[in-house]
């Protein structure tokens, strides 16, 4: 669950490339109120025409394998070494760090496929550009791209801060369907606990609890980060965007609320499961005890008259056999009445009917 | 428990109509100190005479299916797109959001029928009007309507803020009878746990806990919302209304207090239940052990003299049978004394008497 | 545990008389440094001579059945409708609400009889008077009355604020003996858990936990209320009284501390109980297993030679019987050694000796 | 755990002597940079020469039985009635109360003998004197006395505030060896839980938890008290003493930290114990089930051929007996293989080897 | 877990040498932008040339046995007695204490060998020097030394504050691989719980929980300490170093986050383990009950016809034996159907297949 960052003691700002990092690709969308343009670029130098010619440029870097290219980008956008190190070390918590000339934002993106692992997305918001780094191809931003292309909504008329908000908002909203999935798994588990749980349910309950723990660990820091963004007084966030961030903050609160509720539900489920296991054990023990307690005395009586003593007067008595059978029946009836009085027999029947 | 909001990534402010939304109807009550008037309207244009002619106008929109009509209303009352989106997305937590020209309030209404699901009610409080949106027909506001019609109390003499308070207060107070219902269910469960619980009690305890979780999740945010309303310095809340909001805040605190107490009671109940299941298991095991431990040695002795060896001198001895019977009685008595010393037999009897 | 307040939606300030409310009686004590006078009155008009002639007047209203009389009192002392409503709705949490001309205080009184239900006492402290409402005859104030009558202490020389403090202090201090009772019940339960608990102990432990929950719910809000009173800057609380309120606040903190400690003790007790039930179950199972595991093989051997096959050569062998008996003894010894090696037999003996 | 304070409702400031209070003795040490003097006194009047002639006077009152003498002391040092009442009522939480002319400090002293009960020590720090009250002879202050007598360290050169600090510091430090004792008890319990716990371990674990609860309840309020002392701006605490108080505060934090860690360890221990009890129960049940499941079918077969029917052809068959013996062996082997497949037999052996 | 500090009551500032303290060695590295020099010294006097000739001097003291040398160092660097006492008493929590002329920092170093005990490192940061004390040879600072020697990074160009940061950062980062080790142990435990846990797993789970508790206790105070360092306005921390401290603070938060997550995972694991133990117990009981309930009645029937009564007509009946066998088969089938109906037999098979 945690992974090696730069080896302890190396100079801060050292960039350590994860050997499993994906190939780097850089995608640029530049737009203004009237038009937009898209391109794949290979070197930071190709960025200049975009940055000079368009009000807002979104540079999206996918894959972190090419350390050289990333360092060049870092130089081009004057990124602090420590921030660049955080881009490479993809196990940051969500946070906002203001620098003089840009905002550095880290957020964690969830994947709809339901994998409980999250992916780090790093944002640099500066004058005229938003620079984003993500670990792998595939993200929650397609609809934002579509809005830029179509010119629908206010996005083409708004400054860079709004683009950063729009991306964050899309990233946060993508948690909702994933949590919905957990809600459905919890409901399925609940039905099973109440019916006839298989032994594997323990494993599945544990898995849900564990994944919710991961979700929670990912989501909580967003609360503080977006709150900080909301209160940030830099020029990158204007009043209208701030209003939208309040909305985004509401969504984070709602997500945290849902996660905590699900965690409590999962705990309650485990309690219910343990109670019902105890209950079932009780039923098993009752059946065993009823059988043992009725037949053991009868078997003893039978054994008694199976003894081969030469002098056992009863054995010769003509009515001995029917009398013994009657005694045995009597013992059984007494035992049954006793168990009925303890509420075992009657209750067991009632429950069976309920199934 | 959560439901799809606008698809992640779509432009903020997009209105997504829930396919199960109810047909929209708009009810208007306009009143002043002297008189009042009521009407059903079909288009926002019909509102103008009311808004111009009366000090306070309450526009109550029931059902959210007619997105067109709602958008028209939004334009008429200059509602922010994000607020209007929240009206449609009926899974908001209670909150207060001040806009320049109006207050936006979200609250969650409970239904007396005891369904644990809550319904979102959105309020817009502005100069001369209160605009409310609810999901379904049927609400907690009938007595407020009656007070407006009859002119009793201060409502007809008070500004829009007081109407908003009166509606919120009615909505909050409606939680009390619902919680009373939970109190009664908990008391019934408690009596059953202490007497002879059926296996289905686990299910019922779990259901109560789960529903209290929903109640709690609905109620907590009202605390912050009403507190914010209380401290709001806009012109919509005058001092007298603020005094009443303090009272309303007290009720929310009381409700939260009750919910938390019930949750603790429910937890304590589960503990008590598990203890008493363990206890009962102990009793069952004691009975089984007493039976087994007394009869198994006796049966063995009987089996011993049931062996068919040709040379078993005892078998021919005249007093063998009575001696064996005496030995068996002795073994039983010793075992019983042993169990009495362990406190099993005596205690079990005592408990039986207590039933 | 909660009871119907005014029906949801009725106008705030509506007075709803509980059908089980007690008959109203009004007792007046007026005093100054030199003298005091007492009277039972039937109408608020009779109060005027007291209020005009004495520095401090304590009007004590017992029983809330006579709504008319209470409303008259409310008018006489200019009590706000919402405060008067709170007097009738006797399920308030402790609180302090400052009004311009008087302080409104709600506190919850405990009864020494040990009933875990608490009674609401409402105080109105104004210029020259303290007006108190209690639900039933019988209270914790007798020694305060005695101090007024005897003129001991500072009470006769002090203003109304001190009287209010003295009453509150007496009310808070009355919790100590009640909690002492819980302490004794917990100690008794603890001794029993460690010795031989009866099955009914679960019920009694649950009862204590539940009642402590009620105590806690009653006591916590006093902390905030007395703190608020302490910081109140109205003219009703002078510096000397404030010093006494600090002392009273200390007592509330101490009571909360005791309640929380008792709650933890009760939880620890349940854990200890469950552990010792598990332990006992283990002992029972060991005894059963030892008996079954020793005798079942012996019985099988006996059964073997009880078979009636025509050709069983051993049956005719002269030493067969003694050999079989020896084998049986050997099996028993092996089993006992095995159980001793598992630590069952030795340990069980050791524990028995400990009893 | 709590004890009667002044009866509820009596005037605040009433001194109630605990019947079990110890005989009062008053010890005085007066010192300056150059010299010191010690005396036992019997009346407050004897204090005057000390207070007038020495820079710092420490009046140590041991035992609270002599209410008259204590009241005289109270008058001599102008102690507020409420503070004096707190001296007698020895169940206060640690606290600091500033009065105009003196500081009133309450702390709780632990005894090295390991009794979990703590003793109240009350300090009054004024111009030129420290007055302390303790319940019983014997305290943690002997090394402070030695430092005064020997003149080592800064104590003889420092004002009264430093003496108060030195006493408090000695009192706090005395908790360390007591907690060390709990650490050792917990480690011993841990070893036993992991080896072969006796049944009495439940009792001992409960006792440690309970005593840690008492320790915690005693220690927590010291944190707030010393913090308040640290921030106190009265003239009794000079800057150098404040630096030492920061050190003392650190020790309190460290003690709280240790107590909380021990509490968590104790909880974890109980969990481990319950898990291992469950485990052992499982082993017992497996042994029982293996024995029963192997021998019960064999015994049944033996019983079958012990029946006395006249027409049972097998009985006459020559090879019947060996065949039946073979069948029985086969059944046993099948059962053993079945249990080995379930992992019972193999696992049980492996665990046995581990012991 | 706690160790004796100076005996309670001795003068504050008394230095108590732990008898197990390691031999003292003093290592000096002095450096400037251009060059560096290293030396082992034996007396504080040898420090003067370094302190006078170089911008930054790092004096690293390893081993605390030589109290005389340490006191001399204390005098040379004007260390407060209380701070020096804290250096000797190696059980401090991490903290920062500002003195006029230097910063005193305590941190706790972890060892990669995975021992859960941590070692105290004390830092004194003053004008031109960083003085560190560690308990034993071996630390996390080797890469910092390498950076000083090689001149890589900014360290040689930065003031003393940056050196202090670099050491702290290396110390904090060394926790990551240790926690990674816990992550792996938890994952191994999880796999085992879900497969076939051995009894020793309880012990290992308890050990992990206990060690995480130690980790947590060590890490938490670093949060407050580094935060305080970050906000410290002394001249030792410049703006660039402050930016790096923010990064270091992030790492502490991340470590705390990981520790808390692991603690929750460990708790969840215990729950899962207990659930699966309960489950397995259920399975064992079912097998026992099935065997007992099927064979006990059959054995009884066999015993019945093994009785030796002279007059038992069935015994002579020719078809008696086959009829009895048929009845026995019938009883078995009925029992099996009954258990299948209860879901025992079918379910047990299904689970077996799943293995």
Describe this structure in words.
Five copies of one chain form a homopentamer. Chain A has 355 residues and is an alpha+beta fold. Chain A has helices at 48-53, 67-76, 81-88, 142-150, 160-173, 175-194, 201-231, 239-304, 313-316, 320-341, 344-354; strands at residues 25-31, 36-41, 56-62, 95-98, 102-109, 119-126, 129-134. Chain A has a seven-stranded mixed sheet with strand order 2-1-3-7-6-5-4, sandwiched between helices. In chain A, a hairpin with a 4-residue loop joins β1 and β2 (36-41). Chains in contact: A-B, A-E, B-C, C-D, D-E. Chains A and B meet through α4, α5, α6, α8 and α11 of A and α7, α8, α9 and α10 of B.
Question: Which descriptors would you attach to this protein?
Answer:
homopentamer; alpha+beta
